[in-house]
Amino acid sequence: MAMSMRGNKPHILVADVSMYRFLHSRFFANYIRHVAFVSSA
């Protein structure tokens, strides 16, 4: 994350965005699973 702040390198920026999207989608999937479990319980 800190590397993209130092220099605006396109490939590093893309890597940060893809990592963010991966982590966000994983968190979102866990959240959906949690909500579905709670609502069904």
TrEMBL record:
Name of the molecule in the record: Uncharacterized protein
Source organism per UniProt: Fusarium oxysporum Fo47
Lineage, broadest ranks: Eukaryota, Fungi, Dikarya, Ascomycota, Pezizomycotina
